[in-house]
Specification:
There is one protein chain. By secondary structure, the protein is mainly α. 79% of the residues lie in helices and 0% in strands. It has one domain. The protein is built from one helix and no strands.
């Protein structure tokens, strides 16, 4: 394999890795979006747990 072919293979792999990572993020958001929304709604209604103990 020539140096040019190796570089192209590495670039292709980096691009593939980025696409795979983006798809994993998309699926995670789709799978967990409802739970996150419910959690956020609970926080809006009840406030943060132990908020009175925060020093900032």
């Amino acid at each position: 394999m020539s140096e040019g072919e190796l570089e192209r293979t590495q670039v292709d792999q980096v691009g593939t890795d980025a696409l795979v990572a983006e798809e994993r993020r998309r699926r995670w958001k789709a799978e967990n979006g409802e739970a996150i929304a419910q959690h956020n709604a609970w926080i809006e209604e009840h406030g943060l747990p132990l908020a009175e103990h925060r020093s900032f």
